[in-house]
Amino acid sequence: MIKRVLMVASYPESIVGFRGELIREMVARGIEVHVAAPVGGKGATGATGGESDADRSAASSRLKASLEALGATLHDIPLSRTGMNPLDDLKTLAALMRLMLRIRPDGLFAYTIKPVVYGSLAAWVLGVHQRTLLVTGLGYAFTGTQGGTKRRLIKALVRRLYRIALGRAHMVLFQNPDDRRLFIEEGILLDTTASRVINGSGVDLAHFSPVAPPAQPVSFLLIARLLGDKGVREFAEAAKRIRQRHPQVRFRLAGWLDDNPDSIAEHELQAWIDDGAIDYLGRLDDVRPAIAECSVYVLPSYREGTPRTVLEAMALGRAVVTTDAPGCRETVASGVNGFLVEVKNVDALCQALQRYLEAPALIAQHGEASRARAEERYDVHRVNRSILDAMGVDRPSSCPARLGPSVVR
Fold first, then answer.
1. Terminus of the chain with fewer CB atoms < 10 Å: N or C?
2. CATH label of the domain that carries residue 55
3. How many CB atoms lie within 10 A of CB 105?
4. In this structure, how many other beta carbons lie within 10 angstroms of the beta carbon of residue 388?
5. 215-261 tens-digit pLDDT
6. Same-domain status, 87 and 130
7. What's the domain range around 247?
8. Are residues 149 and 282 in the same domain?
9. Tell me: the pLDDT tens digits for 81-101?
10. Domain count, the chain
């Protein structure tokens, strides 16, 4: 029986928003929860490193308070999400081993590549009883469009590290069947390792409650880290083309410039803003108002685990246009709650968006279908039960079927 879990994450700001309800349910089942993340160092908040020490300290304090409110304990570890310095990674591994020796967890839950790799290795060496790893997406090493030889070398290294780490897990969870299939075909996931597919991270249907779409003018919204493989350039180009014919239509973009090698350049973003193609909303602490103000949510991503912002938009009752790509295609039944388009195909993206301008009644119709699909497949409490079942955590009779709303990320 698992009594103490260590959750390892690389992106601190995702913890409460993406895993808050999972932590809450673990605590409700009598599990002592510890969370390890890089909350104190430069770039720990996930931005480009321009934040001040005071900003990082304030963010760390907010996260600590939020996790304590959920009943969890936060631990700072050195971890660079995108760095490739082997000495830094060894420091991460050593820090995780020291932490595990101190708190003595009998369960590990790690997600995103470095927590998965180094969390799994540390837990295996120290004999942690149950090791569950969640692959939330393939990331730049598999999907990035820049780098050439460097990216091929990174991909080979990541594939090797994944194979070692996943081979030492008791359970590997994937957020879509395509990622699982790819890992099996490339020999990353061994036949001897148990694995399952779950419906993403889920979405809190009470917190993201449906809101009627606004009246004219029609507006399209994309929320994402400003990376090439999120389809940000395709979104901007579609905005430019459609606004030439329909200047009243609004295209809004929310997100931030990242230190990922595939990041959009600052001058590109500024050019879109200066041209009037894009209304840039910056980084949002609460995405609900922006989604509520849009008519249709758009994510032209090249590949995802399961896109959380799409689930949030669906829960709020928004039609969705996304790509026929792994992780994205599962969220949309084309013609029912939105449209699927070919990856990197701006013409197809424009055609899909144009359909909402020609038949605006589809906006509400597809939005209602999105909410129904979210209720059927992506309820966070149902997803969390799948995760806990995979971890071998029994559901006590006293544990409530539904929990309160999560803290806003």
1. N
2. 3.40.50.2000
3. 26
4. 21
5. 889 999 999 999 999 999 999 999 999 999 999 999 999 999 877 77
6. yes
7. 219-377
8. no
9. 777 788 999 999 999 999 999
10. 2
Amino acid at site 87: L
Question: What token pair was written down for 9?
Answer: 């994450």
Tell me the two tokens of residue 385: 């039960």
Residue 409: band (very low, low, confident or very high) from pLDDT cuts 50, 70, 90 = very low
Q: Tell me the C-alpha distance between 219 and 77, whole Å.
A: 41
Token pair 């900003």: residue: 55
Same domain, residue pair 25 and 174: yes
Exposure string (b/e) for 239-257, b if CB count within 10 Å is 16 or more?
Answer: bbbbbeeeeebbbbbbbbb
